[in-house]
Amino acid sequence: MSKIYAKYLELKEKDKEKLYLFKSGKFYIFIADDCDAINDYVVLKKVKFTNEVYKCGFPENVLEDYLRVFKNHNLNIELVDNTNLNNNSIYDIIKNTDINKITPLEALKILENLKEIIQNEK
User: Fold this and answer.
1) What are the beta bridge partners of residue 24?
2) What is residue 62's predicted lDDT score, i.e. its pLDDT?
3) Which among 22, 54, 94, 108 has most CB atoms closer than 10 A?
4) Distance between CA atoms of 95 and 51, rounded to whole angstroms?
5) Do residues 119 and 50 touch, judged by C-beta distance below 8 A?
6) Residue 39 in contact with residue 47, Cβ under 8 Å?
7) Which residues of the chain have pLDDT under 50?
8) Where are the alpha helices (DSSP H) in the chain?
9) Distance between CA 22 and CA 85 in Å, rounded?
10) pTM recorded for the entire structure
């Protein structure tokens, strides 16, 4: 499970009414049910985030424009900066991985984490 999705589930458990807007690389994204909900107000292209979950979003340089639209619709939006979700850089992850002491499953999890970091930087 991606760190963003795990954080989304955690936040939704606390407050189901809010729509959570995640900073992901150079974009802001809504995921899962929030992706569907926001498209009732603004049309954003939906694409797969995981096999089961969709995302939609916009570039960071138009954040203020979208926040104004969300405010005009009285939407309860919370910004979530994912810099605290990806504490490790790709370099740190590779540097701190002892390939002689990990299982194949652990190696796959590391690759998934690296892939997520790279995709979020796009």
Assistant:
1) 27
2) 95
3) 22
4) 29
5) no
6) no
7) 86-87
8) 3-14, 32-38, 63-72, 90-95, 104-121
9) 10
10) 0.67
